[in-house]
Fold:
Amino acid sequence: MKIGIIGGTGDIGQGLALRISDKHEIILGSRDPAKAVEAAESIIATLKKRGTVSSCRGTSNEEACKAADLIIISLPFQHVASTLAGIDPKYIAGKIVISPVNPMIRKDGFFYNNPPEEGSAALAIRKMLPESAKLVTAFNNIAARKWTILDEVLDYTVAVCGDDAEAKKTVIKLVRETSQLYGLDAGPLAVSGIVESITPLAINIAQINGLKDLGVYIK
Ligand SMILES: NC(=O)c1ccc[n+]([C@@H]2O[C@H](COP(=O)([O-])OP(=O)(O)OC[C@H]3O[C@@H](n4cnc5c(N)ncnc54)[C@H](OP(=O)(O)O)[C@@H]3O)[C@@H](O)[C@H]2O)c1
Structure:
């Protein structure tokens, strides 16, 4: 697949690209295309050193959407609306869109789920996308640093929520071909708030107990 990552220069965007650009064509998007080009070159060089051939290029957020079959929104929640407003909806229409977005705040040293009035980031983002886009949540609960340590196996459960069965199947396949991630159908988009709220829980547990980059394995 051609996978466009909006905000692809960030921690999750680059981490994802490092893990899946050997199997898919990755197009990193940015507000600054030169920054995305640099990030893509660095990803290709890192993987080349390991003997892995990858496909990754950088461009604007809009071009990344235009070129993609599947789009990943890898932005802090507060910047999703303004970024999507700057992208022609025809480049998103009809496509699968993945949201790993968690609406969190930090207060008195602890992280809290801080959903918008819709109930979750995913339900708010659904309203920002063209009707025909198929929004699916995935990759919400894996720490960015884990993506970048390429010698580490990613053996977490990835809860996948969405309202389009075929889109969910495609995303679960993408998840399952990534390291040892185990993608599972977690229900409709309406329940995605549950998945988003697991991330602040994992961060708080890590902080309190002197642990790092905790993830979830549902078993
Ligand atoms: N970090 C994690 O461990 C983690 C884990 C699971 C899920 N998530 C979720 O994944 C999403 C991405 O997280 P991240 O840590 O990768 O985010 P990030 O690194 O903080 O930011 C991602 C990108 O957003 C763009 N950006 C920053 N400010 C912006 C603005 N004002 N307007 C438009 N774009 C802006 C930047 O790209 P350009 O400067 O190139 O435009 C940046 O590289 C978040 O919603 C987060 O909740 C994160």
